[in-house]
Amino acid sequence: MSQNRDLEEGSALAIDFTKLKQTASIEEDVVPVAVQDAESGEVLIIAYANRKALDYTLKNKTAAFWSTSRNELWVKGATSGDTLEIVDVRVNCEQNSLLYIVKLKGNGACHTKDKNGKTRPGCYYRRIQDSSLEFIRKE
Asked: Per residue in 71-85, is it b (16+ CB within 10 Å) or e — as a string?
């Protein structure tokens, strides 16, 4: 398996505890965004937004983020077609994080696919079990 494939499909626990430090070193001011499915309540993804991404989201009613790895606006689904329609945007008490409540418009929110090639609904498809990872749903 490639490094990304091992990370995304493997059972080894390899949490990247450096992500926030990496995010802090980009040139954009960002806040974390939790994305929740309006129907199921499931948390689909955690991403980041800057002012540009939030403005796009509010104007277009489609979830947009700031890609901390590519350092650019990321409109979810622009290439895959798996867009996230905004139902509501909420701000936490300290105004340092956002919650996008969305409707899935497409097959899912995650960029990974299951064994059948189907886009996963969300990015939280494994749980920690006995110091390793286990798929939540049988694939």
From this structure: eebbbbbeeeebbbb
